[in-house]
């Protein structure tokens, strides 16, 4: 009995960080969110990577890293954003870094619809900018279909699917498939 209890206490102590680390983790999470909300994505990315070292493969960290990188990558070619003095200018994000964040999120959270929605959005950006990544991200619609399977009652996923169908790139893909 006592050996089992001691074994459980040791296992739990190895899995749960000390109180000082918990305070640091909470502080870093708040800092990352604040930076991301202020469009300081480079700094938010760095803080999230620090957090990942403290608690590897944490869904909160992986999801937010994917969101920060997706937003940064999406905005880096937006000339209007470059002229906006309220948002700090960020250095360009290499496509491989966005893809790495999406792949890590999909691997850690394969049954979370949000993972597949983020993957779809990243795949759409790569498709629209004619960027090829190895290994490739899942197809825009395959990701949305998976998200729909996981959350069939979520109307936001249907809206996202509807928006993708309206895009010229989708229509071009469909015409090419029909011509085969």
Characterization of the model:
The chain is an all-alpha fold. The protein contains 10 helices and no strands. The longest helix has 19 residues, at 19-37. The model has no long low-confidence stretch (mean pLDDT 81).
Sketch the topology as an H/E string, one letter per element.
HHHHHHHHHH
Content of β-strand: under 5%
- Main sheet attributes: strand count, strand direction, barrel closure: none
Q: What's the Cα radius of gyration?
A: 20 Å
The average pLDDT score comes to: 81
**What share of the residues lie within helices?**
over 70%
Shape assignment: globular
Number of helices: 10
Task: Report, as a whole number of angstroms, the end-to-end distance.
Answer: 69 Å
Structural class: mainly alpha
Unreliable parts: none
How many strand elements?
Answer: 0
